[in-house]
Specification:
With 542 residues, the protein is of the alpha+beta class. It has 3 domains: 242 residues, Rhopdopsin 7-helix transmembrane proteins (Up-down Bundle); 94 residues, Beta-Lactamase, CATH 3.30.450; 150 residues, Alpha-Beta Plaits. Helix content is 59%, strand content 15%. The strands form 3 sheets. It has a 6-stranded antiparallel β-sheet with strand order 5-4-3-8-7-6, with helices on both faces. Strands 10-11-9-12-13 form a 5-stranded mixed β-sheet, sandwiched between helices. The longest helix has 36 residues.
């Protein structure tokens, strides 16, 4: 009957240590899924894990009765004992957004002293620098007393307190310097960090009522509970940390948040500035209760498809806003509402309008230039009086037509025309009357030639009509039609009794000539033959 109370007392200490391990593990699990979403989450996660290891080792150490077994589990605890304070310092530095522990080399140096101390703990039997003596305490509590050597005081106590002091100082700086949205988090964590300080000081310097029982693991777990409160209540490592909230408030782009019913649940200052006053006095106003630019934006953002659109904001000058609408979802998947991101693109739109107007003017100028170039080209290739092609065009084109005719095996006819009696008319009635007659002949030639033909003013009162694919007989027949048409047209116009007729000479490649020069010479000889035969007729080259 005497042994049962002792076992019950020992089990209660072990159970307390197991509770501490369970609390630390629970906090680590709470932080673990989102530990990378905010500064300090990663080292805080590992801190809770080593506290859980420390507490679990303490629970087992409190159940064993012999010194070798206790020494083994104390060494297991030391993995957590030596690592927790550097991890606490690392957490405080990362949480405070400080930069002096960012490099891997500095982080490794932070754990150099704990690693060396742990080697001394593993080899304590050889030198006794960590625990010079170990003995069981009298009574029924199954507790042991470890005396403290120089390595314990330097490697465990001094270095751990140094890390705790540096971390606490860093949290105090954060509480003073961080933005207002983050200060409450820093204050809560700072208060929680004082708990391990008090517990460990009372244990090391004899102030704890139960000799041989280290309350530090439990106090670290309690600190974890305080930090967990900061996680849940203030969103320390939540989905939308306070730092992001601050960034949303100060960013230049407008942000409007709608819930699944289309109600405005949040809007940042930039949105109010871009859209002007709202009829909603607070968040939760339905989008259909708005007016003006807000109504245009929210109606389209909630009822329309996702994507980008523009909103016109009246004013002097009027402004244009570009809105991007995206859905946001809960962590489990269902759609919770929509985000609307706003940007003022008025200057860009005005610049684009000015650029479009400049481009339109440029296109107009280019069209004018192209028309002018075409006009100049026509002027360079056409006779200004008759509107027919000039001799330059003839020389450029006829050479190509000869090559094409040779390749196709087809004839190419050249008809050389000359006005009979033109000099008499020009001398008696003047150059104006002569020019008028040349213009009439030009109109006649353009009207009576095929699309494949081309008529040129060859020089003075001589004209050349090129007829691709025409035999000598066909070309002569068409030339005679031209002659008769001119005679009929001339007979109806008053020329004060001056007779003007049309004579023509026909030559065909390759029957009459083998090249361009010979073809023109043959047509010229045929024209002279027609004039010599009495004029007003068509002659074919021989």
């Amino acid at each position: 009957m005497h042994g049962e109370p002792v076992l019950c007392e020992i089990s209660s200490f072990a159970l307390l240590a197991l509770v501490a391990a369970w609390i630390a593990t629970l906090v680590a699990a709470m932080i673990g899924a989102r530990r990378k979403e905010s500064p300090g989450g990663e080292p805080l996660f590992w801190l809770m894990l080593v506290v859980a290891l420390w507490s679990l080792g303490a629970a087992v150490e409190l159940t064993v009765t012999d010194i070798p077994a206790k020494l083994f589990w104390v060494r297991v605890q030391y993995l957590g004992t030596l690592a927790c304070c550097p991890l606490f310092l690392l957490f405080a530095v990362r949480f405070a957004r400080a930069r002096w522990l960012d490099s891997p080399g500095r982080v490794a140096a932070l754990f150099a002293v704990p690693a060396a101390t742990y080697l001394f703990a593993l080899t304590n039997e050889w030198h006794g620098l960590v625990w010079p003596t170990i003995h069981l305490l009298p009574g029924a509590q199954n507790l042991a007393a470890f005396s403290r050597g120089p390595v314990f005081w330097l490697g465990v106590i001094a270095y751990s307190y140094l890390c705790l002091a540096a971390g606490t100082w860093q949290l105090g700086v954060a509480a003073l310097r961080l933005p207002r949205a983050l200060r409450r988090q820093a204050v809560v964590v700072l208060v929680g960090s004082a708990i391990p300080w008090l517990a460990n000081i009372s244990f090391v310097f004899g102030g704890f009522p139960v000799r041989g029982l280290d309350p530090t693991p439990l106090s670290m777990a309690v600190m974890g509970v305080v930090v967990a409160f900061a996680v849940v209540h203030f969103g320390l490592v939540g989905l939308v940390p306070a730092a992001r909230s601050t960034a949303v408030q100060v960013m230049g782009s407008g942000l409007v948040v709608l819930d699944e019913q289309g109600r405005v649940i949040d809007r940042n200052p930039a949105a109010r500035l871009l859209l002007g006053p709202s009829t909603a006095t607070s968040s939760g106003q339905t989008s259909r209760g708005e007016s003006g630019p807000w109504a245009a934006l929210l109606g389209r953002a909630f009822d329309g498809p996702l994507g980008r659109f523009e909103v016109a904001v009246p004013g002097d000058p009027p402004r244009t806003l570009e809105a991007d609408v995206v859905e946001y979802r809960t962590p489990h998947g269902p759609v919770s509402g929509r985000f609307v991101l706003l940007r003022d693109v008025s200057e860009r739109r005005r610049a684009e309008g000015a650029l479009a107007e400049a481009n339109r003017l440029l296109q107009s100028r280019l069209a004018e230039i192209e028309a002018l170039q075409e006009s100049l080209r026509e002027q360079a290739l056409r006779d200004p009086l008759t509107g027919l092609f000039n001799r330059r065009y003839l020389e450029e084109t006829l050479e190509r037509e000869l090559v094409r005719a040779e390749r196709a095996g087809e004839p190419l006819a050249a008809v050389l025309l000359d006005l009979d009696g033109f000099k008499v008319l020009n001398d008696r009635l003047g150059h104006a009357a002569g020019d008028e007659l040349l213009r009439e002949l030009g109109l006649l030639l353009r009207a009576k030639t095929r699309r494949s033909d081309f008529a040129c003013r060859y020089g003075g009162d001589e004209f050349l009509v090129v007829m691709p694919g025409s035999s000598p007989e066909e070309a002569a027949a068409r030339a005679d039609d031209l002659r008769r048409a001119f005679a009929g047209q001339y007979a109806t116009s008053p020329r004060q009794g001056i007779a003007c007729t049309l004579s023509a000479g026909v030559a065909v490649y390759p029957g009459h000539a083998a090249d361009l020069r010979a073809l023109l010479a043959a047509a010229d000889l045929a024209l002279y033959a027609a004039k010599a035969a009495g004029r007003d007729r068509v002659a074919i080259a021989t």
